[in-house]
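Annotated sample (chain length 380).
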Amino acid sequence: MNHNAAPDTLPRRRARSDSFGWLPTTIGRRLRVFAWLSFLAEVIIIGTGGAVRLTGSGLGCSEWPLCTPESLVPILEVQGLHGAIEFGNRVMTGVVGLLALAVLMLTLHVLSGRRLVVRALWFALGGIVLGVLVYIGTVLVGLPGADERTTAVIAAAFMSAALLLAVLVGASDSLRQPMPRKDLAVLAWVVLIGVMAQAVVGGFAVISSLNAFIVGFHYTVSLALVCVTALFLVRLGTPDAPRVAAVPTWFSVLTHVTGLALATTIVVGVLTTGSGPHSGDEAIKRQGFDATVLAHVHSWPGYILAALVLTLLIASWTMRLRPRTWLLALTAAIAVQVGVGVLQARTGLPPILVGAHMVLAALSAAIYMVVVTKLKRPVD
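Output written by the structure step:
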């Protein structure tokens, strides 16, 4: 154990790798609850973001960070259901951010007591003050050749960048401090930074009139955050101890090859969706890639992925390897994913199936992340 740890915040850890016993009782329970809520919220926001795109509500709020030039919230008489759906996704972004902040504060409290929490809050306050000053200064000074609307949007972008910069500096300061379980602090900071960056990317998606590459990047980062929150949950339940290989080398190599196939499948799938009919708004037409060709290309790594996962599953159960239970879950997720993909291709890409495909991709990636963590085990 790191001797810099506060003795009253880190009781003796249990030996079992799946135990939360090293956490203080009250704060630990809260941290587990908020960590699960953060993971679920990251999954849900992929669903709400998909609903925005699949219902043609991508420009339901025409402005950012406001919904309309005059209002933060949609005017239902004017924007109707599209505005409500888009604004609902923006509200969900706020929920995700608050949960990420709660997980970070509780993690720092568990690891250091109030010391790092107070330091982080000072950086947050400084970021808010800096952001407000940047916004006011940009609006007052103005930008050459920019109208009032453009100036306000750019000022909001500068303000968001200032807040993000303060968080990055705060993270750097926090992670330089002595603490046990720095892995948990790193993951908690990554999620908060990722959520804040996602809000800015979402703003650029609106400003760019739903540029396919920005929207695709927006989804990919959301999927990555689902994986990071899943990894946080796994690490939260794993004692801080040396780890050794729990599987043969060839199995580990094949697992990482499977990860490459999964990443390739997801990237090609994002390009396929970005070139298809669900552009996010009826007035926006996709240009560039042929969606029909990409749909076939998307299936190739998908079938390779299914074969690799099935091979790992059979090997793990035959040899009674540690990741076998999670590989069973991954096999089930991939099987459902392949079935949904084939069905949506044969039924003209109904929105409900495309949305399910998006969420299943995120869950499959999260389960794969857990499988990778099971390739090693803590030394007893």
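Annotation: The longest strand covers residues 243-245.
Annotation: Residues 82 and 334 are 32 Å apart (CA to CA).
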